[in-house]
Design a protein that fits this description.
13 strands; globular; mainly beta; two-stranded antiparallel ribbon
């Protein structure tokens, strides 16, 4: 199922734009030590129109605190790497080949090519043993997930049922510097579950 959005951009009470028929074509979720969780969303819009006044009712900005990678990080699992210490995890989501379709005489898009959903990323860990390296060499499929929980107890669990570790880069910073290993990875659709990535929300108990 693909949902489209209408997005407003307001500069003042008399100046702004509205973007209709927007679909998400990609984005990122970033978790790194010492930083807040962050994310980006790429959008494809049917059209851009001037909006001298606000269209519809605009809700108030959210007041929830931003997730941090210490107090809000509840769990992280990298397959059989139960003891892995993760420095950062980047998840890149894309619709490969997604594009707006235009025709002669139509200022706005007449349709959209949805593309193929793909997920890839990087994980950076402290290189303390050969566990991750062995999974990389064997091209083993591993299940990956992490959970973040806000101050009210609401949780999100991001789950990738099958990823394969790809290219590895080891960083050797010198004396008194830890050795780090960064693995590129690609997610595959799970052969029995039939999906590639899930974002699950659980309300506070």
């Amino acid at each position: 199922m693909v949902n489209t959005l209408s997005i407003q951009e307001r500069y003042s009470t008399t100046h702004g734009f509205i973007y209709s028929g927007c679909i998400a074509s990609g984005g990122q979720i970033n978790a790194a030590r010492g930083q807040f969780f962050s994310g980006t969303i790429d959008l494809i819009a049917k059209s851009e129109e001037k909006a001298a006044s606000a269209v519809g009712t605009m809700g108030a900005a959210p007041t929830n605190r931003v997730f941090n990678t210490v107090g809000n990080m509840r769990a992280i699992a990298l397959g059989s790497l139960t003891g892995a210490k993760v420095d950062s995890l980047t998840t890149t989501i894309a619709r490969e080949g997604a594009a707006a379709n235009f025709a002669l005489g139509d200022p706005g898009a007449i349709g959209v090519t949805l593309g193929t959903f793909t997920v890839s990323g990087q994980v950076k860990i402290y290189f303390s043993d050969y566990s991750a390296y062995d999974l990389y060499k064997s091209e083993a499929a591993i299940r990956t997930s992490y959970q973040v929980t806000d101050k009210s107890g609401n949780s999100y669990i991001v789950e990738l049922p099958e990823i394969v570790l790809g290219k590895v880069t080891r960083e050797r910073g010198g004396p008194n510097q830890p050795v780090m290993a960064t693995f590129e990875w690609m997610a595959d659709p799970h052969p029995t579950l039939g999906w590639t990535m899930g974002i699950n929300r659980f309300p506070a108990a």
